[in-house]
Design goal:
By secondary structure, this protein is mainly α. It is built from 13 helices and 5 strands. Helix 8 links the parallel strand 4 and strand 5. It binds tryptophan.
């Protein structure tokens, strides 16, 4: 049996944080040998809100380097930059012409982001999920690892594929494969350090709310020192009245690689003053190898470039085939 194909992407906006790593990338790494993986840096998505052209390219390379630093292995996984495979934008256009406007207007993330943008809502922001559908469907992906916030986008992706297959394919020979969500049982949900009820997020205005993968030990120490706690002594998991406590214990458990029972026993009778240094140490130790590998990758730009070039070639070969199939099903004249 050939391996199932997995596709995912990260936007090159801001730094990756512990939520991105523990909730997503670490899982990709753990299961990468089971699948045929395509991991892209979705730079075209990053310009759907106003962006700074001076840092787009650097941020794009940075995410690619962080993929490698986190353990994505080019032997199992292709790493590439979305805009380097022009089929993404071309398929997006073809999809645009079969996607009802009201599917997009109703997307939760669009409505939330549009509110934040005020007057300055670009067409690209509305079209964001169609571009994401193109990312996935171009590779005939079987599985897409998604968090809660991307589920609706994956459903839309399936709806677009169903519609295109229905309008231009035949039942015996669908043009596009319907992807399934890859949901993992123990994918850690990392919450903000300043509010245990909200997800750790790139868009939180407070830097203190998250730990970046490239934070120095001093920064990590400062952020944990200032993080929100509660006045109760004795730290326990799963107390609904203590969201911060549950989040910090979970982080400690995952970062230190201990079992829940071991952490529960270690922390049941200690206070925050004792706990914070433990968490700080675990975070610094867990990030140290990633940071070292990142520095190594960045010191050797030729290596990263060769990975990305290879990734682009392998990605383009599949993407161009799918694009050609869709063009032909939609009745376009073949290029001469
Ligand atoms: N929308 C995703 C996010 O913000 C990023 C993304 C773009 C993506 N294209 C994708 C994720 C394709 C999975 C598959 O997290």
């Amino acid at each position: 049996m050939p391996k199932q194909r997995v596709l995912s992407g990260v936007q090159p906006t801001g730094n990756l944080h512990l939520g991105n790593y523990l909730g997503a990338i670490r899982n990709w790494v753990e299961s990468q040998s089971q699948y045929e993986n395509y991991f892209c840096v979705v730079d075209l998505h990053a310009i759907t809100v106003p962006h700074d052209p001076k840092i787009l390219a650097d941020n794009t390379y940075k995410i690619a380097a962080l993929y490698l630093a986190c353990g994505i292995d080019p032997a199992d996984s292709k790493i590439f930059i979305q805009s380097h495979v022009p089929a993404h934008t071309e398929l997006t256009w073809l999809f645009n012409c079969i996607t009802p406007l009201n599917w997009l207007e109703g997307m939760i993330q669009f409505k939330e982001k549009a509110l934040k943008q005020g007057e300055n809502v670009g067409v690209g922001l509305l079209d964001y999920p169609v571009l994401m559908a193109a990312d996935i469907l171009l590779y005939q992906a079987d599985l897409v690892p998604v968090g809660e916030d991307q589920k609706q986008h994956l459903e839309l992706t399936r709806d677009i594929a169903i519609r295109l297959n229905f309008q231009f394919g035949s039942e015996e020979k669908p043009i596009l494969k319907l992807p399934q969500p890859l949901i993992r049982a123990e994918g850690a949900r990392v919450m903000s350090l300043t509010d245990g009820t909200r997800k750790m997020s790139k868009s939180d205005p407070s830097e203190l709310s998250r730990i970046h993968l490239l934070d120095s030990p001093e920064e990590i120490q400062k952020k944990i020192k200032r993080c929100k706690t509660d006045p109760i002594r004795g730290l326990t998991f799963d107390d609904p009245d203590r969201p911060e406590c549950n989040n910090l214990l979970t982080l400690y458990m995952v970062l230190s690689g201990q079992s829940k029972a071991a952490v529960a026993a270690e922390c049941e009778s200690i206070g925050w003053g004792q706990f914070k240094p433990l968490l700080t140490e675990a975070a610094i130790a867990a990030l140290e190898p990633i940071q070292a590998r990142y520095q190594q990758v960045m010191a050797e730009p030729g290596y990263l470039e060769s990975i990305l070039r290879q990734g682009r070639e392998q990605a383009a070969a599949i993407a161009n085939q799918t694009l050609a199939d869709v063009r032909s099903a939609m009745g376009f004249a073949s290029p001469l």
